[in-house]
Amino acid sequence: MVRVRPRRGLRSRLATHRALLLELLGANLFALAAGLPFVRDGRVVLTFDTVAYTGPNAALSAREWTAGRLPQWNDTPFGGIPHLANPQGDALYPLKLPFVYLDTFRAVEIVSLLHLLVLATGMVLLLRCGLGLRAPAGFVGAIALVGSGMVIARSIQFEQMVAIAWMPWVLLGIDRILSAARSPRWALAFTAVVTAIMLTGAHPQPLFEFAPFAAGWALVRAYEHDALRRLGAVIGAAGAGVFLAAPQLLPAALFTSEGALIGKQTLESVGNPAYVVQFHRILNTVLGDPFTPNPGFASGSNESMTAVGAGVVTLAALGALACWQGRRRVTIAFLATSAALSLVLALGPRTPVFRAAFRWVPGFNTERVPSRWRDVTVVALVLLAAYGVDAVARRKVHRRVAPTAGLILALAFGVLLFGHPALPEWRVRVAWMAAVAVILGSTMVIARHGRRPLLALFAAGAVSVVPLVELGAVVPHNFPHLLSMPTARADHPGALPGMVAQRGGRLISYASDKLGDPRYLLDTVRPNANGLDGIRSIDGYDGGVLVTKRWVAAVSALAGTAIRPEVLLKGQMQFPLDPNLWARFGVRWLLIDTAVQPAKVAAPDWHGPVLREGTLELWENPVTVTEARLYVSAVARPVEVATADALRSAAADQAVIEPGATGLDCQANCGVVAVALERPHPGAIDATVDATATSLLVVDEQYLPGWHATVDGRAAPVETADGMFAGLRLTPGIHRVSLRYTTPGLHLGLAMAASALLALALYVGWPRRNGPESGEEPAMSFFR
Q: Which residues are 56's β-sheet partners?
């Protein structure tokens, strides 16, 4: 049976609502303080990801949406790549759509701040309305999560932040399905919609990490509510959410077969010290340093930041001990196990648990950064801490709880606290011990004098203030504050990118990796910053599906050997640059930092410098570069010959085609004819071609499933040419050629979303047998 909470009196409900509103207000004010730099006039928060990934993706989506088109193709990195099928492209993410008319960087900032508010609000509602914890558990839980080092690091990585921001809402929906007094129809619809929103915008790795946590949460909460029979409704809500997000998920799933990095991670690559939590720093990583001007210093890297504070860890221990009774025991055990297991996984390949999961768990070997598993650790610890605050607020702390918690913490921290060389300075250790002492002392006051209202109120206030002070101390120097710079320094484009954007043509950039200098990244057009101004490149930056197998095979010709797909092409180019070979890839411009490599060494046969700005120089390919070429001579690459070798050995007037394709054997006048293209928008290419003989038109756009062509209005087959580009066979004569890209799976995904939306509408609105409201939980009581 489903447990039904007893109805309370009007005065009690009004007091609860006032407390809830105050907690929401306090939590959102804290989130605003943490994210204030995102909306500060005259300044902008720029990071490497903003410049090289989030910003370019947002710019393309904004250009397409404002033109009234669905953003499906990105023609700027990798010689062209799907955009809608990129699970990190957020092309359909609804929270970005209202801001497409703003400047790209400003839009990213506003959406980043919005997610901090979504996270704070969702956490308060989960703890107060979902779990029914007493104030100030909602406020403490929200500031503990928003102020944690994990969120500080993720707030500047939009794709990572989406899953974290919506996770409390998903957990809330699951809990309301399981605890609804009657039919869970509103809770099911709510959970489906929130799940869909998260799925359309979240990075795959946090989704992969939070999915088992959400499933375990559903199981333990179903047990606590004695509602195991409602697990089917939870599964239905998750399925409906997947269907609603199908226009994004299905294309991404279909595209994974093209990725060169999918499932290709090795234990050596994921064991990078910057990608794992260092065991000797684990105490620093979890507790954080409230005094450091660099939030990532204590944990060794930004990816490892956890920093929930000593106060929250102490409250988590108290919550586990105080609530270890009845059915709550299962939830507490699940949260404690999740926190410990995910922290072990964050340690990376050094642990047998990680190695076993890497070998046996499907999809686990696609994760690039093991330390991100600490996201689950933070969420679980914060939930446990909220249970601890609730126990204090209800004055239901047994006298033995505080001493027991103190003993456990002393045993856990004692040896490291006083003897480990990796620990921070003494003032940080004193701050940790002070936080633990205040929490434990307040708990002992509650245990011994809980019947005295003033003492109990004072103790509960102290328990709330400690996390606020400890985590609030970091706010003035968190990442958004540190990375905020005057808007004038972020103006874009510079002179060199501006010239390329104006004159057109594909560019390759060779410069230093100053990842912490956004202005330099913009000036040197580091991949994928070229997308901010619509500059096309054969290079690209991505750790996921966008690095395709055919791209890797083809551009290996430019490196002289098989490239590493996880490394930028710019760092693997073979010098000196062969103008003819680079012209085959449509590259007209070389932007080079002469402080890194003299241009006369890198490109002695290129023309230039066409433009110079400090140590940066722009050089032009002496070979005429066009966006499309008409070949009358083509040779099929033998199966035993690598694509890169075939491209390097082919004559300049000879196209390289796939094994089994019909070659073109020209005897005379075999020169290549340049063809001008029209590009109405990304994913649309038109050309008028005058073919004097049977020819192969090669368009410098990566050919992937989804491209369709017409010649003189009739459908024509498209084939792979020159390793990765789109090729069309033409007969003699003048032809009108059109190429259009339609994302595979898009139409089916739209149909799935429409069917799910209709099913949810019918489920929520269809009258029940005994009348429209009989047996229903009213919509207004959803967050009761």
A: none
DSSP secondary structure code for residue 741 in this structure: E
pLDDT of 284 over the 50 cut: yes
Strand bridging mode 506-510 / 587-593: parallel
Model-wide pTM > 0.85 = yes
The b/e string for 363-373 (b: 16+ C-beta within 10 A; e otherwise) is ebbbbbbbbbb
Are the beta carbons of 2 and 230 closer than 8 angstroms? yes
CA distance linking residue 57 with residue 417, whole number of Å: 45
Q: At how many degrees (to 10) do helices 374-393 and 328-346 cross?
A: 150
Q: Which two tokens stand for residue 328?
A: 């709550």
Could you tell me the CA-to-CA distances from 72 to 53, 143, 551, 706 in Å, in that order?
17, 38, 19, 10
Higher pLDDT, 627 or 426: 627
Strand partners, 593: 616
DSSP 347-363: TGGGSHHHHHHHHHSTT
E-strand stretches of 11-85:
43-45, 73-74, 81-82
* Residue 694 DSSP class: S
Q: Tokens for 226?
A: 């004695």
Is residue 393 within 8 A of residue 462, CB to CB? The reply is no
Q: Token pair of 41, please?
A: 């006039």
Q: Which two tokens stand for residue 480?
A: 């958004």
Identify which of 646, 628, 629 has the alpha carbon closest to the alpha carbon of residue 723: 646
CA-nearest of 660, 431, 636, 647 to 552 is 647
Q: Which two tokens stand for residue 624?
A: 């005429």
| Contact yes or no for 328/224 (Cβ under 8 A) | yes
Q: Which two tokens stand for residue 151?
A: 């969120």
In the three-class reduction of DSSP (H, G, I as helix; E, B as strand; rest coil), residue 509 is classed as strand
Beta strands in 206-337 (DSSP E): none
**CA 366, 372, 378, 381 torsion: positive or negative?**
positive
The CA distance from 400 to 656, in Å, is 78
Condensed to tens digits (0 to 9), the pLDDT of residues 691-744 reads: 988 999 999 999 999 999 999 999 999 999 999 999 999 999 999 999 999 999
User: Nearest Cα to 309, choosing from 101, 503, 146, 90?
Assistant: 146
CB of 59 closer than 8 Å to CB of 39: no
pLDDT the model gives residue 442? 78
Helix (H, G, I), strand (E, B) or coil at 577: coil
Contact 722, 656 (CB under 8 A): yes
Tell me the CA distances in angstroms from 41 to 78, 106, 660, one per residue in order.
Answer: 35, 10, 61
Chain centroid to Cα 63, Å, comes to: 21
Q: Helix or strand or coil: residue 430?
A: helix
Return the structure tokens found at 715.
Answer: 């459908």
Alpha-carbon torsion 20, 24, 25, 29, what sign?
A: positive
d(CA 732, CA 65): 39
d(CA 713, CA 710): 5
Query: Would you call 760 helix, strand, or coil by DSSP?
Result: helix
Find the radius of gyration of the CA atoms of the chain: 29
